[in-house]
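hey can u check if this looks right to u? its 172 residues, i copy pasted from the old doc so theres a chance i mangled smth
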Amino acid sequence: MQLIKNGNFIADSWTHVGDEDTLPEGPVIVSLARWQKEQNALIARGLPLGVRLKSGEEPSLIAEHLGHFDVVALEFPAYRNGRAYSYARLLRERYGYKGEVRAVGNVLRDQFFYMVRCGFDALEVASTITPEIYRESVGAFTYTYQPASDGRETVLSLRQRLAARAAAAAAS
């Protein structure tokens, strides 16, 4: 897997750790179950920590602990399961999470644009994805209809702004 962070391909310093695996030195991403079972020991390590939420494990389960996490990894188990989009928006908009929100699992190029709009700033992608493919995917759409975490102007707000400008010009 490769990691794209804020649009750049970078080396991934994080290790996904299974529930029964020994914790290596360095930054780790653990499951929600492991976090719930070992949170005091994980915090006591004093090293960067991430948590991985499976589809169906809502951000509300970690909301009061978000200050302990440098990464929240949201899993896409299949292309037709989009709960992680909603979870990313909840993390950013409801819970004000400023750390890394990472898409993991079945992350497909057709989804990059929407993932970025919903608040993902890191994507674990297949080795076949190139910087050109990434740029093409996130630049596929010029205008958007729905508001999202990325703050892009929607078609409706653009129309309203242009109508107001035209009305002001007509009144002068």
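The chain has a mean pLDDT of 93.
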